[in-house]
Design goal:
GO terms for molecular function: G protein-coupled GABA receptor activity. Among the domains are: 52 residues; 94 residues, Immunoglobulin-like (Sandwich); 177 residues, Rossmann fold (3-Layer(aba) Sandwich), CATH 3.40.50; 32 residues, no CATH class; 36 residues, no CATH class. The chain has 17 helices and 31 strands. It is elongated. 37% of the residues are buried. Helix 4 packs parallel to helix 14 and helix 7 packs parallel to helix 8.
Length: 650
């Protein structure tokens, strides 16, 4: 029975009803409710509710608790039951902290009950993760438990190249197909499918940035693979980091991307171009070339590493030529190279948005710069362009160098599966890669797969291994930063061999092969390139004979002289260095004749100096004698007086 209002007010020490009945906000001081008494009453009520709640929590428990982990959507949770002795016939409701679709209600019998079987779905912004299952009775939470939801799918963005057949064949399709192979094998992620969602980058900063932003606008994308070109990565990677999304590429070589102060969540499955330079430097070091010309382009100029390394090897850069990308010929620029009298040329120019290597090849052929004694050393992907171009006749490719990574361990099975699918028109068409994408697929073999396709396949593998660690081994919630850190820490066997990353997120170099163009065989291995312990340099060791340009068997010394050096050698650009005891013939030299043709003898009595310290008798028959304080001669010969020749009778 309710207490009379008057008694209630009296208990609250309110002497008058006027304020209560009239609802007056402002009352006289003697009629005002004592606020401290009200606070005491309210506090007592709250404490009473707390005790009730605490009592309820201590009397409920799991009879069958939630499993530690469960597969999303496909694995049912059966027999989840609770016991609440004080709950009698109460209604218990089960909900999830993430899966908003879960709401199960059961009627307890004698304080116990079992929820019907159910499945869980990951959150819209999660790649799986921990969910809290809460049981409530009469609106109050009485019991909680946690379970880790293994995601059914994980979404990855792929900034790919679909601009030209070489783009989709060399860059894009191998990792896409490889993802399908790993998804079907189920060896790394048994109950999870990785969706590799491809959008165009096409080596265009604007196209790539638009695609990247589209990925970043999706809450399900946990990482981005690509883009295809370094210039695009310089825009896309910082933008992705702002969204806490890591970027991993298998095709970017620019050393600037190693700067962690700018590209904080970027990594790559290849060594940067500074490390690639070491392959070419090993060849220069072996042959002892002391002068080189660098040919690069404003799209990707050589970095400081090349200059520092060349300087350490006492190699002089005669001309550092930076070509303007997009020109159709470079005649004026290449004339600087021919005037330098240096025949060793290092280049990293390749066809990208513009056909720059085509323009370079066309110009060099016109100026006979692939003939002896020129030697070209191609970086990646310049060598790929040189191998496939028809602008340079095969007869003029002889004796020029390229390099190819040659890992000691390869996974031929994975590579073969990728080739089999790329060569299968039915598979390609069924999976959405028919039409123009069939142009270059047939005939692909494991040996003809390019480094770029393999590096991108390693990028896919890096993501799979990281997800395996986070989702299946550790079963922990992760954000973009943790995913990036996990990928960086990996050490595994990839499709090309051992894969590991340095502190900048760049893959470590692997052993390589030095390749030279051999007539009828194209580029063939002619030596090994191996790391040197304790040194930043690599060591090139030839193991196969080959010819230099124009079929010449004599190693070029790297410099050019316009005339015959005679008793000397062309050791400096355009300059003959005479052997000891020989000097230049200024008259012949200025006339374009031989150099180093005058022998040194201080004086020849009745003869002429024909070699250092060698006098030839004059035509009158007198014995010639060398008189010199600069040379040491036989004592007896030096003390013998010249003999007069006998006169012949007429």
């Amino acid at each position: 029975m309710k207490r009379p209002k008057e008694k209630f007010l009296q208990e609250l020490s309110v002497p008058s009803q006027s304020c209560w009945e009239e609802g007056t906000i402002v009352c006289s001081k003697r009629n005002m409710i004592k606020s401290r008494d009200i606070r005491r009453v309210i506090g007592a009520i709250i404490f009473s509710l707390f005790l009730q709640s605490a009592s309820a929590q201590t009397t409920c428990s799991w009879t069958t608790p939630p499993p530690s982990s469960v597969n999303e959507k496909t694995q049912q949770i059966n027999g989840l039951s609770i016991s609440c002795p004080g709950g009698a016939t109460s209604t218990a409701i089960l909900t999830s902290s993430v899966d908003s679709t879960l709401s199960l209600s059961i009627q307890l019998v004698n304080g116990a009950g079992t929820f019907p079987a159910f499945t869980l779905t990951k959150g819209a912004t999660q790649a799986g993760g921990t969910q809290t299952l809460a049981v409530s009775i009469n609106g109050a939470s009485v019991l909680t438990g946690k379970t880790y939801v293994i995601p059914q799918t994980v979404d990855i963005g792929f900034l790919a190249n679909f601009d030209v057949p070489s783009g989709w064949m060399d860059y894009s399709l191998p990792p896409i197909v490889f993802t399908s192979v790993l998804n079907e094998e189920r060896s790394l992620l048994p109950n999870t499918v990785v969706n590799l969602n491809a959008k165009p980058s096409n080596c265009s900063v604007t196209v790539s940035a638009a695609s990247a932003f589209s990925f970043l606008s999706s809450p399900t994308i946990v990482a981005i693979m690509g883009p295809d070109c370094s210039g695009c990565a310089m825009v896309d990677a910082p933008m992705a980091a702002a969204f806490d999304v890591p970027v991993i590429s298998g095709t970017n070589g620019n050393p600037a991307l190693s700067d962690k102060s700018v590209y904080k969540m970027y990594m790559r499955t290849l060594a940067n171009n500074d490390a690639e330079d070491s392959f070419l430097l090993s060849i220069i070091q072996y042959y002892g070339w002391k002068y080189v010309n660098l040919v690069t382009f404003d799209y990707l100029p050589y970095g400081d590493h090349m200059y520092a390394a060349l300087s350490e090897l006492n190699v002089t850069v005669s001309v550092n030529l930076v070509l303007q990308s997009g020109k159709t010929t470079y005649t004026t620029e290449f004339q600087q190279l021919t005037k330098s009298k240096v025949s060793i040329i290092l280049t990293n120019v390749y066809n990208n948005v513009n056909l720059d290597s085509d323009a370079m090849f066309r110009t060099a052929v016109a100026l006979n710069m692939f003939d002896y004694p020129f030697v070209w050393l191609f970086g990646n992907p310049s060598g790929d362009d040189f191998t496939s171009t028809t602008i340079v006749p095969d007869s003029k490719k002889t004796g020029h160098f390229y390099f190819r990574r040659s890992p000691t361990i390869t996974n031929a099975a994975w590579r073969q599966k990728v080739c089999d699918r790329l060569n299968n028109d039915t598979w390609m068409t069924t999976n959405g890669w028919g039409g123009p994408y069939l142009q270059r697929t047939k005939g692909l073999t494991v040996p003809t797969m390019t480094d770029y396709g393999l590096w991108n396949m390693n990028a896919v593998l890096t993501i799979f291994y990281a997800l395996q660690s986070l989702i299946y081994t550790q079963k922990i919630d992760f954000d973009g930063q943790l995913l990036y850190t996990t990928m960086r820490a990996l050490n595994f066997t990839g499709v090309q061999g051992p894969m590991a990353f340095d502190s900048n997120g760049d893959a470590y170099n692997v052993p390589a092969e030095g390749l030279a163009w051999i007539p009828g065989q194209k580029f063939q291995p002619v030596g090994t390139i191996l790391p040197v312990i304790g040194s930043q340099f690599l060591k090139f060791t030839p193991n196969t004979a080959f010819s230099w340009a124009s079929g010449n068997t004599t190693q070029p010394n790297g410099v050019i002289c316009d005339h015959n050096c005679g008793q000397g050698s062309c050791s400096q650009p355009g300059t003959c260095i005479c052997k000891t005891g020989w000097v230049q013939d200024k008259t012949l030299f200025l006339a374009g004749g031989s150099d180093c043709t005058i022998a040194l003898c201080s004086a020849c009595v009745n003869g002429q100096c024909v070699a250092p310290n060698v006098c030839q008798c004059n035509p009158h028959g007198l014995e010639a004698t060398v008189v010199s304080s600069h040379f040491h001669f036989n004592k007896q010969a030096s003390m013998t007086k010249p003999k007069r020749a006998r006169k012949h009778l007429r």
